[in-house]
Amino acid sequence: MGAQVKNSSRRIIARERRLYVMWLKRGGYSYARIAIEIIRACTTGTMQDDYDGPTLSEDHLIRNYNNAKAYKDVRETMKQYNDQVNPDIEDERDDLSETLAELLSICMAAARKGDLYGVQVALQSVQTKAKLLGVNKPERKELSGPDGAAIPIDVIRRATEAADSEDAD
Fold first, then answer.
1. Is the pTM of this model over 0.85?
2. Counting CB atoms within 10 angstroms of each CB, which of 1, 69, 87, 158 has the fewest?
3. How confident is the model at residue 57 (pLDDT cuts 50, 70, 90)?
4. How many Å apart are CA 18 and CA 83, to the nearest integer?
């Protein structure tokens, strides 16, 4: 019985800490800054002024809490949230993939007969399925100067100054 109480207590402590971590992350804090805030909150017992969740105490303090642990807290909380909100997402993805495969086979038959609309729908089906399955590799975009060289710093300064002057107007 004592082990269950200890585990239950640890879960409550982790949940309260993760609530505060998520609140900080939603506020735009970096993982390193979140780690600093968690340590500060645990050692001093003070939270950010506008936070209205449970107060953290020294019981919540994790030895050597750092940005990697803050990242893990955020990732674990988001996983739990996604599991609760979208428990059947894999099933839905499989169903949609099967539907797209059926549509593609119908459209391909029409496309082989020369039906241009069939070709268009088949192509859209393939693109949609690729997005659904995450097949498309992200494109890398780079800005460069003439002939692929670096952009001269004076060009960047002028562009920045022009953007700043437009914002001032």
1. no
2. 1
3. low
4. 16
